[in-house]
């Protein structure tokens, strides 16, 4: 359950992936919050909801989290 977070933490702390620890936290918290917000807005929970709704909320959370965590990189490339 905690293995992905542990692996990403080790890779980030040893500079094997090009992200900062702050970006990891930003992505994690934003994607979690957006996913919960969307599931709450649809009135569903992860256990009883339609799989399509849960998957859509999860993917949207991941996308928003990636944009928030990578905003500096995006701004540098686009501006």
Describe this structure in words.
The protein has 79 residues and is mainly alpha-helical. Helix content is 75%, strand content 0%. The protein contains four helices and no strands. The protein has helices at 3-13, 21-41, 51-69, 71-78.
Helix and strand layout, with pairings?
Elements: H1 3-13, H2 21-41, H3 51-69, H4 71-78
Using brief descriptors, characterize the structure shown:
single chain; 79 residues; mainly alpha; 4 helices
Kindly state the percentage of residues in helix.
Answer: over 70%
Mean pLDDT, rounded to whole units?
82
Give a count of the beta strands, DSSP E runs of length 2 or more: 0
Q: Low-confidence runs (pLDDT<50, min 5 residues)?
A: none
Spell the H/E element sequence.
HHHH
% residues in beta strands: under 5%
Distance between the termini: 39 Å
Q: Over all CA atoms, what is the radius of gyration?
A: 15 Å
Largest sheet: none
Anisotropy-based shape: flat
User: Structural class given helices, strands, pairing?
Assistant: mainly alpha
Number of helices: 4
